[in-house]
Design brief:
With 123 residues, the protein is an alpha+beta fold. The protein is 15% helix and 24% strand. Strand 2 and strand 3 form a beta hairpin. The longest helix is centred in the N-terminal third of the chain and has 10 residues.
């Protein structure tokens, strides 16, 4: 015997061994019971400190102009008087606000929220 099977011998082995290659038996997997997602309590985020800043406006000037500044110098900013100012949380725009005075201290009155998500503020 030379160790090779003819096509007929191969067919006979398949038929005699009752091998049915067309019928594949798949294991039965029962679906996991659908559990409702647990509701997360996000109240602990309320104790995390964040840095809130008020950005009045900005200006781009040369280093030479900056070095020539003295106590009477005026740098023109890019925002008109009366426009809402930018409130930033950890450097990300959070809202527009106007400055108010409360009990002798400056305060901010929010006039527009930027719609920035909490994820963006955490970066």
């Amino acid at each position: 015997m030379n160790g090779q099977l003819s096509d007929n011998d191969f067919e006979q082995l398949l038929n005699d061994g009752d091998l049915n290659l067309d019928a594949v038996v798949e294991p039965v997997v029962e679906p996991a019971a659908a559990l409702p997602a647990p509701r997360q309590d996000l109240s602990f985020f309320g104790k995390i400190p964040v840095n809130v800043t008020l950005e009045v406006a900005s200006a781009e000037i040369s280093l030479k102009e900056l070095m020539e500044c003295d106590t009477s110098s005026v740098i023109v900013l890019d925002k008109l008087a009366g426009e809402p100012l930018d409130v930033k949380v950890n450097g990300t725009l959070f809202a527009k606000a106007e400055v108010v005075v409360m009990n002798g201290n400056y305060g901010l009155r929010i006039v527009e929220l930027s719609g920035t998500s909490l994820d963006a503020l955490a970066r």
